[in-house]
Amino acid sequence: MSRIRITVAGAGAMGLTAALALAEAGCEVAVFDPAPPLANASGVAAGMLAPAFEAALDPTRDQAFDLLLAGRDLWPGLEARLGLSLDRAGAIAVGAPQFLSTTDTALRRLGLYPNAIGRNTLAQLSPGLSPEWREGLLVREDWRLDPAQALSALRRAAADLGVSFHARAATGFEGADRLVVATGAATDLAVMAPSLSLLQPIKGQLVRINDPLARGAVVRTEGVYAAPSATGLVLGATMEPGRADLDIDPAAIETLRVRGAKLFPRLADAGDVQAQAGVRAASPDGLPLVGRGRHHGVLLAVGARRNGWLLAPLAARIIAACVTGRDAGPYAARLDPGRFAA
Known about the structure:
By secondary structure, the protein is an alpha/beta fold. Helices cover 32% and strands 23% of the residues. It has two domains: 5-46 and 147-196 and 284-340, FAD/NAD(P)-binding domain (3-Layer(bba) Sandwich), CATH 3.50.50.60; 91-139 and 201-282, D-Amino Acid Oxidase, subunit A, domain 2 (D-Amino Acid Oxidase, Chain A, domain 2). The protein has helices at residues 13-24, 41-44, 51-57, 65-73, 75-82, 97-109, 119-125, 147-160, 250-263, 308-324, 332-335, and strands at residues 5-9, 28-32, 48-49, 91-93, 115-118, 135-139, 143-144, 164-166, 178-181, 200-209, 218-221, 224-229, 232-236, 240-241, 273-282, 289-292, 298-302. Helix 1 links the parallel strand 1 and strand 2 (28-32).
């Protein structure tokens, strides 16, 4: 019996995770993407797996907390499968009393129990944090991964299962039986996947600083987050709806640097600074389009807004179920691309 042949358009978090799941299900998979391996929004991202603060700090996401948490809970299996190391240090909120009070209320509304922590604990969990911050909130539900490490591990694991990679854009099925559109904000395949017209591009800019002292938990405050990484500290990120360019805006970058230095004063004199920009896509309700498209044989895994890494394993599970005829699980209906049809 011949294997189902799958073309996956896009080699970001969604595309690679889907490709791996489909290969593990016995499909013959080919991935098409003209961009270099790390030159996409997934590679530029900070790698947040943050269901708690994503839902608490964004009023449009609180009703999706269960779905976001379900996506995060699939990551330990991938962590073991890929040999990754997830950062489970958690995340801290600091800021004005009103900001902390509002954040605490929002987290508790989600059923979480944030820990109120004082100056000594803040200094232990985030060395170098400005002494201006005397209190904060800690949640352990939010994790982080290294995007470059994760993308490389996904490609290796997929290649080991026979997935082929092609450094060009897919223009259609490319001779396959199914087409999985995981092209982020690109709409080149909209003829085959009309739902792509629903997506809005969102530009995000961030700053990477070579900081050997960076370690500990992610720190969030109004207008910026600071995430320790393997190469230093990531300050991010802007949200610029409707923009699909990759131009660096010096004013936006300077704002991130100033806000970052307010968290960590040592950053004021940082010299090794790299600014990056990526373009993500968002659906009208902020949740991705995952599942069968309008045309036969076409599936979508796009529009995750800033939660591409968080929801990638969940999207991959749904895509594999659609192809193999298995149960797609309890979240498939909420992510169905057809949910916006009149």
